[in-house]
Predict the 3D structure of the following.
Amino acid sequence: MARILLAEDDPNLGLLLQEYLTIKGYDTTLVKDGDEALSKFVLSVYDLCIFDVMMPKKDGFTLAKEVRMSDKDTPIIFLTAKSMKDDTLQGFKVGADDYMTKPFSMEELLARIQAILRRSQKVAGSEEVKPASSFVIGAYVFDYEKQVLRHGDNNQKLTSKESELLKLLCENLGKPVSRSFALKMVWGDDTYFNARSMDVYITKLRKFFKEESSIQIVNLHGEGFKLVI
């Protein structure tokens, strides 16, 4: 049974979609805002996501961008009441696989879900590519599996959280990584105390790269961090 994460802030439409998809054989998890959707996505594995664009706390575009920081493959369908061309283009730019404008028929949504899942299953059935576990960062080499950062003859042993945080930055080299997403991926929750803890770890990571000034972990005000070389 394919698992679907459905993020829709309209309770009537959300429940209707959840009931319809469940009847059609899909294990459908319904959430009512983008923040809750990100928390569910981090903790579970889904075969497809359906995100409403206009949601409280975190809109669908922002949610999709954060999902794509760690997952490039899980299909995403956007639902929106807007029909502006720019919104459609923005949806595809942040990683959407399809886009439906409200109102839409349940049968059409089901057909698009089935088509996307068929395509994604074919890709999954092809030769599997293992995710990178080693990253070159300037003159440094980061071995994620061994939790070691090498610079010449110097080997710096990292803690689990240091390794997870650095891996997330490496996978998104030159791209913003939001604070909320990093906290949920590494700490499991974006509480105030976890946020303060993450700031300490970011400071420690910066010290590890002190031998090469061209490597920087940049603070992005109101957004998060970015690893740049």
